[in-house]
Amino acid sequence: MPSHLVSHFNNHSVIPALAVVRLVVAYFGTSSALERSRKHGRGKIHNALRILDLIPTKHHDDEEDIPSHRRLINDCMYDILGVQSKRNVMRKRKEDFVNSSSNQARPKSNDMVSSNISVCPSMTRFTKDDLLMHIVELHRRGGISSDASILASALSSCADMKTLTGGAHLQALLVKVGYDSSVLVGSALISFYSRCGQLQKAHRVFQGMTAKNTISWTALISGYAQDNQVEPCLHLFALMRHSMCKPNDITFATIFSMCTNHAFLALGRSVQGLQMKMGFDSYVHVSNALISMYAKCGSIGEAQAIFENIACKDLVSWNSMIFGYSQHGLAEHCINLLKQMEEHIIPDAISFLGVLSSCRHACLVTEGRRCFRVMIEHGIEPELDHYSCMVDLLGRAGLLDEAWDLIQTMSMPPNGVIWGSLLASCRVHGSVSIGIQAAEHRLKLEPSCAATHVQLANLYASIGCWSDVARVRKVMKERGLKTNIGCSWIEVGNKVYTFTAENRSKSQVNDVLAILDCLQSHMDHKYDILIDGLDWDDPEHIK
User: Fold this and answer.
1) Domain end: 267, 286, 312, which one?
2) Among 57-71, 146-160, 243-257, 462-476, which stretch is predicted with the lowest mean pLDDT?
3) pLDDT tens for each residue of 15-44
4) pLDDT (0 to 100) of residue 484
5) Which of 264, 315, 327 is nearest to 496 (CA)?
6) What mean pLDDT, rounded, does the chain reach?
7) Model's pTM, two decimal places?
8) Residue 371: helix, strand or coil by DSSP?
9) What DSSP character marks residue 297?
10) I want to staple 86 with a disulfide (CB 3.0 to 4.6 A). Which of 78, 411, 426, 496 is the partner?
11) By C-alpha distance, which of 232, 234, 265 is closest to 251?
């Protein structure tokens, strides 16, 4: 083994959890692992998949300090592989990686599972790059059998890291051992190149496959969808429907996610009809994708109908509906849904984020405070997004001192978004001193933010500090900073119309402005009636 790799192995860093799961299951023998998992009610494999998400980046080398989720994986190995493999695992856990490599150079057994599993204990101590090089080295020495599932799992690990070099090494190895024509490996290559942003290479692999399956099609469709290339994505989906391979639940979830991102409501409805016809309407993750699509495309009623028809709602189902209500300004619905959720499933950080976001937009200070407190009582550590919602909520309500105090007590450094929220509130409520501090803090984090420079200059101007105004303007000019032009779009009749600020070039812009004037007059009239009808001596009307 090269000396520079040995030095890397002595760092004792661990690889991310998902890679551990994929490679461990590959070394188990996937079919036997899944079969055992089914017999035990999804059993230890399922628990390992969930718990491994919590693996830290580093751990102590002591045997006593191995976390429980690491022991769970070992228990899983023992349960599946039997006594002989258990002895191999125990031996390998106590050996040095270099010794492990040399011992495997001449395998004494032809048992593929037992031979391959011996790589697993050492792999949890080293980086993914080291692991991939180890796999290549063992293949070169003949230390492990040529198993397509192992190499496909290694490609998935490369995709997680977005490491093109490691993937290139593995692809060369695939050609060498004759697995380049395998459907399993081909699909893994497509997914790898797609996730690394190399869609042309992914498409070449797809076209070069003599046999394709649903996973191959879905991997490429997903790649184009994630890269926001709508036309190739839909073209492939149409070709897939006329091929021997039919869409599955993952394919439909991918298409619905694309429709969500691009507000293609009509297309989404059409595809939903197809997936119902093919019998995928009972799949929870497909329904979850539909909830997000309808909510973000403005049809909250259809999103609610799908949510209510899900027989066994999971965490994503509840969170998707909470965020749907939040995006439509239905704060009371969010709060009530969170209460219902607590009766069935434990909320997570995302659940509370959705409720806090709705409270922020509705300026429900009391409910927002209560939600923030309950989240902490659930043992959930607030993240930057939670703090951002609370600062914005308090700032909109004019409670700037409380917002400032909350920032000072944060368990992590505030980011530019938090300072920006406080700055915007200071402008609205005329708090110049706090606003200037917020602007200066944000500019330390985001010195190229033109909007913050403009807001800071306006604050200085409001108190007559013209020299400071000139200084800020000079900095903007020297750095060439300009504010971004506002942009919005809407889909009408299967056509997307875009609008930018101060752009009067659209042929129908005069019609749009006329309608806006009409709406403005209507709202002014309603507001005047409301004000005239208030009893100003009644404290219930003045809050």
Assistant:
1) 312
2) 57-71
3) 333 344 444 444 433 333 334 434 443 444
4) 74
5) 264
6) 73
7) 0.66
8) helix
9) T
10) 78
11) 234
The per-residue b/e assignment along 16-37, b for 16 or more CB within 10 angstroms, e otherwise, is bbbbbbbbbbbbbbbeebbebb
CA distance 286 to 275: 9
Residue 202 inside a domain? The answer is: no
Contact 261, 491 (CB under 8 A): no
- Name, in order, each residue with C-beta under 8 angstroms of 170's C-beta and a sequence gap of 6 or more: 132, 135, 136, 151, 154, 155, 158
Structural domain count, the chain: 4
In this structure, the answer to whether residues 421 and 438 fall within a common structural domain is yes
My answer on whether 251 and 308 are in the same domain is: yes
Whether 526 is in a domain gets the answer: yes
Which structural domain, as residue segments, surrounds residue 301? Answer: 247-312
In the numeric block, the tokens 């079919």 are attached to 31
pLDDT digits (tens, 9 = 90+) for 459-504: 888 888 898 889 888 888 888 888 777 777 776 766 777 777 767 6
- Cβ atoms of 385 and 353 within 8 Å: the answer is yes
- Cα 215 to chain centroid, rounded: 21
Which residue, among 76, 165, 64, has the nearest Cα to 120 in the 3D structure?
76
Domain-located, residue 255: yes
Return all residues near 84 (Cβ < 8 A) that are at least 6 apart.
Answer: 114
Least confident of 412-416, 476-480, 503-507: 503-507
Same domain? 362 vs 327: yes
Q: Answer yes or no: are the C-beta atoms of 391 and 421 closer than 8 Å.
A: yes
Q: 307 and 317 share a domain?
A: no
Do 251 and 261 fall within a single domain? yes
Q: Do residue 264 and residue 333 come from a single domain?
A: no
Distance CA 452, CA 113 (A): 59
> Domain for residue 173, yes or no?
no
